[in-house]
Amino acid sequence: MRVMAQMGMVMNLDKCIGCHTCSVTCKQAWTNRSGVEYVWFNNVETRPGQGYPRTYEDQEKWQGGWQVGRRGKLQLRTGSRLKRLLQIFSSPKLPSIQEYYEPWTYDYETLTNAPLQEHTPVARPRSLITNEPMNIEWSANWDDNLGGAPELTQDDPVLKKISAEIKERFEQTYMFYLPRICEHCINPSCAASCPSGAIYKREEDGIVLVDQDRCRGWRQCVTGCPYKKVYFNHRTGKAEKCTFCFPRTEIGLPTVCSETCVGRLRYIGIVLYDADRVLEAASTPNDQDLYMAQRSIILDPHDPQVVHAAEQAGISRDWIESAQRSPIYALITKFEVALPLHPEYRTMPMVWYIPPLSPVVDALTDTGHDGEDAGNIFGAIESLRIPVEYLAELFTAGDTDLVTGVLKKLGAMRAYMRDLNLGRPPDESIATAVGMTGQDIEDMHRLLAIAKYDERYVIPQIHAEQGPRQEEFDTGCSLDYEDGPGMGGWGPFGESSGGSTPIAVENFHMLAARQTADTMAAPGEKAQRVNLLNWDGKGAPEGLFPERPEESAALQGADGGGVGEGSPAVTDPKP
Amino acid sequence: MSSTLEILLWVVVPYVSLAIFVVGHYWRYKYDKFGWTTRSSQLYERRLLRWGSPLFHFGILFALGGHVIGLGIPESWTAAVGITETMYHVVAVGIGAIAGFCTLAGLAILIYRRRTVGPVFSATTKNDKFMYLVLTATILFGLSNTVLGAAGEGGHYRDSVSPWFRSIFYFQPQPELMAAAELGYQLHALSALLLFAIWPFTRLVHVFSAPLGYFTRPYIVYRSRDPQLGSRRAARGWERVGGDRR
Q1: What would the pLDDT profile of A80-130 be if each residue is shown by its tens digit?
Q2: Which fold has domain B9-215?
Q3: Closest C-alpha among A139, A156, A145, A154 to residue A16
Q4: Contact: A197, B50; criterion CB under 8 Å
Q5: Between 20 and 30 A from A519 (CA), which of A70, A75, A99, A453?
Q6: pTM assigned to the model
């Protein structure tokens, strides 16, 4: 057993309202540059729909991901290494920019310099690729909210797998949103396709990154990724992809898309997995068994043997504890409501989804039934085959029983919690019907519905283990030499000896002390004196002025300060 | 004794060009790893590239192989294993002509594409244009030499150009050999030397990224997080456990 930690995400699709805040903030943070105008590391698709880039899920066409060869050996769908290198001069399966969309801007200058005319001047769209005027005919999200259906949605590769009768009826049935980022796969086919070895998986947290200094622009990763989440920067000639916002997650902050998600539907945490069994799991012959195969390599972080092996593998204690508290582990393994996106691509994706129940409930309510009654909802999930089959094509390689099972759990949670909220006795039989206990359901409800920040994001920090070197040192501190006096605390000769404390560090401790202390800062200790640089101007905390013996009582006014218009006596000098 | 011009053209120029070639690549790799790329334009256009690029690249790889054999292997060696001059000539000219025309056809398609497809043209730098000019000239001179050789009017490079080329690397240059070579070969060599001199500063550097390591490396690359956050090295005693595991 070789234990490795993997950062992952779970998205609760029931809560996605398709507002695209995640996409927009991600774009602002990462891809608002020339060359990646068309790139959305995070995009939100309306399903059924073609997706972005168009029909990317059609692997017969795009040849992404892995497949099991004739002798049961796992290989890239594009063939052998030799075959790929022979095709390197013109990658045959690379989507063109039209498959994504041609990015554009508007000719805003016309609005200001157009001559006087009867009609308001118009800023016409201009291509950012050719700089010529263009007609906007497609974009990253053209079929948002089924815009243009059914002409556009009939090209949905997932829908094509479902029978004709269902296809005709699906448009009256439902739609939902699917936010997508890079899957940070355990078995990434983009990395396997990279001729230069520039795409790597980080040992510490499993995040898949492109080394920009090693990438040579061979474009094989774009073909290799079945989710089409590696993009080619047409200005720099390098591949770029979602970084899981590693500069943020390294210090324990959630990714930009998660942080800004108004529906609070994203969960971030780590899981521990057995790296030795990845190949075996990815080679599982039957597509529908891949979900369980991937579950089987995810280790139980509470198991003492796993903990021991993790410690042997150099995973630190706080990471193991984070894995034990991980919301994604709970949703994947404990509650079993999260499912991987397209497990049949065999890349072992690590962004999982809780399939949406809302369309079922809505459809049920539309028919005049009580959409949250346990009896009704269980029956409805069985009879509403269309959403279930569609969801199964997305999340379980077509295994409808798994999706039904998850939807029943979500339905049971609604029914069970409704009883509690209405002050009725809890009906344990609802929980039993889906193989859970009432407590499980309440825990799941807390995680899914209450969704506290600290419980949604359990992100262990990266251990820099680099000792006393912080950003101020990089701007050139004169004391920064080996065995220098260092910083923090006093030197051997009292408070003015030793190195100076960098302002950032001093501010940080000062603010932390003021936020957590019960009283205003006292001047006794250097660390508690008021630093004028970070004094927020409110009141006059103690320590702002030197204390005078006879007035010390007056200074302890009810308002916590004594200096101001209402207290001239205090500021007036006394003889 | 060789004239000053001969020494300049066939001793000084080659060494300057090769020095720029070697040192230039070292410099470029050290300071511009980020700029070291194929700068593919396939995203903009793929129909013409589908034909032009493989034709050009495979053609020029064969041509490269031909040059290695033709310039690197002395006539005496091939004669020693029983290959006659005529046999050698027929094979070399035959394969060389096919490879050369493939290269030229590919290059023609690629240049046509570059000029006519809007996005590709606007992504073309002055550097690219100059490089294309020198590259095309070199290929045309080379191909004309091969064609003339096939027509029987020349093609005697194995006793002039080849020994001169090898003499450069022995550091005992023999400019008089090259001075005696046919004009076509002289022009081909000069334009090639110019190409070598500009090589490190153009997109041609991607030749040295030919991903041969792909055959031997494992599919999935694991790498530890960069041990160093800022621009400074960690203080002594604060190195990461296990060191750099890249």
Answers
A1: 999 999 999 998 889 999 999 999 999 998 999 999 999 999 999 999 988
A2: Fumarate Reductase Cytochrome B subunit (1.20.950)
A3: A145
A4: no
A5: A453
A6: 0.81
Reading the block at residue B206, the tokens are 């991607």
Contacts of B34 in chain A (CB under 8 A): 212-213, 236, 238
Tokens read off for B121: 């043209």
What's the average model confidence in pLDDT over A397-418?
Answer: 92
Enumerate the domain spans of chain B. 9-215
> Residue B52 pLDDT > 70, yes or no?
yes
User: Residue A24 and residue A568: Cα distance in Å, rounded?
Assistant: 54
CA distance A41 to chain B (A): 17
Interface probe, candidates A466, A474, A478, chain B, greatest B C-beta count within 10 A = A466
Chain B positions in Cβ-Cβ contact with residue A88 (cut-off 8 Å): 211
Contact B235 A236 (CB under 8 A): no
A219-242 pLDDT, tens digit each: 999 999 999 999 999 988 999 999
In chain B, which residues have their Cβ closer than 8 Å to the Cβ of A474? 230-232
Residue type, A353: Y
ipTM: 0.87
CB contact under 8 A, B222 and A238: no
Nearest CA in chain A to B236: A482
Q: Are A321 and A315 contacting, i.e. CB atoms less than 8 angstroms apart?
A: no
For chain A, the domains span 502-552
CA of residue A19 relative to chain centroid, distance? 16
Q: How far is it, in rounded angstroms, from Cα A382 to Cα A411?
A: 12
Closest approach of A453 to chain B, Cα-based (Å): 27
Q: Which chain A residue shows the shortest CA-CA distance from B215?
A: A81
Q: How many residues does chain B have?
A: 246
